[in-house]
Amino acid sequence: MICLENLLLEWLSIDGFLLFVIGILAAIIGVMFGAAGFVLLPALLLVGIPIHATVAVNKFATGVSSFSTVLVLVLKKKVQLKQMLPLMLLAGLGGISGAFFATRLSELTMNIFACIVLIAMFIFVLKNNKAGLVTDHQDNEQRDGEQRTNLLAPFFIGIYDGGFGPGSALLNITYFLKNQFNYVKAAEMTRFMMFASCMSAFLFYFFYGIVDWGIAIPVTVGSIVGSHIGLKIVPYLKGKWLQILLPSIFFLLIIQVVADLLF
Questions:
Q1: By Cβ atoms counted within 10 A, which residue in 37, 148, 243, 258 is the most buried?
Q2: Which residues, other chains included, contact 231 with Cβ-Cβ below 8 Å and sequence gap of 6+?
Q3: Is the sign of the CA dihedral 97, 71, 139, 240 positive or negative?
């Protein structure tokens, strides 16, 4: 009972409100541009939370907020759950694998890995912008051959998300854009992938004993609010804006990770 009272007081404190606001901002950016970690991870690290505990909080907050949006998307029949289940399974397996590897890697190794992945995707997005990776058009039919060829991508993105995470939603969005979905649909489908990879990774971190509920709860509540705000804003984003914003966010994420490596 005392523990619950202490947690409640912590959530209602100034620090708890700050974590709530951080959760809102991170989720909005995560839904719109796939870069929630750009806000959440540095903010939590700045207040002195160890990187593995920070990743665990990030996974819980993103997983729960993603689930809340997944429910809305399924109930409104905007995304077919049957269509997403195989990809979610791969993302979930990747997420728990990433969490397993992360608990056995140093912070330096994790940052180097993140930097390599983000640079590769930055180059990919720049290369494909001229080919129309992001458009304002409605969905085209997905090519079955290409879908089968790229089935490993959700698994490897899940590994990255479970082990570290910054830019993982953006990697998923890019994956769906490459598979001929427009940006709005790609952002919606990404919420399913994030739920699968984040919650599977979080379960590993939870049983590993590195979850701080005093931090996780206010961030998660803020993330739920922010994710729904973000989904409302996404349809108003223009293709031309996104052709500039997507590589820009990748570039900022790379700077963040390189700064962590150097300093």
A1: 37
A2: 31, 69, 72, 187, 188, 191
A3: negative
Distance CA 72, CA 179 (A): 23
- Write phi, then psi, for 60 (nearest 5 degrees): -65, -45
Under a CB-based contact definition with an 8 Å cutoff, are residues 59 and 110 in contact?
Answer: no
User: Which range among 73-87, 206-220, 245-259 shows the weakest confidence by mean pLDDT?
Assistant: 245-259
- Radius of gyration (C-alpha) of the chain in whole angstroms: 17
Res. 259: pLDDT tops 60? yes
Residue 152 CA from chain centroid, whole number: 18
Burial of residue 6 (CB within 10 Å: 0-12, 13-18, 19+) is exposed
**Residue 173 half-sphere exposure, CB side, CA atoms within 13 Å?**
29
Dist CA 190 CA 164 (whole Å): 17
Contact between 16 and 216 (Cβ < 8 Å): no
Q: What's the token pair of residue 198?
A: 């984040």
Max distance between CA atoms of the chain, in angstroms, equals: 59
Query: Residue type at 201?
Result: A
Percentage of the chain exceeding pLDDT 70: 71
Both structure tokens of 218 = 């206010």
pLDDT tens for each residue of 75-121: 998 998 998 999 999 999 999 999 998 888 777 777 777 677 767 76
Residues 95 and 161 sit within 8 Å (Cβ to Cβ): yes
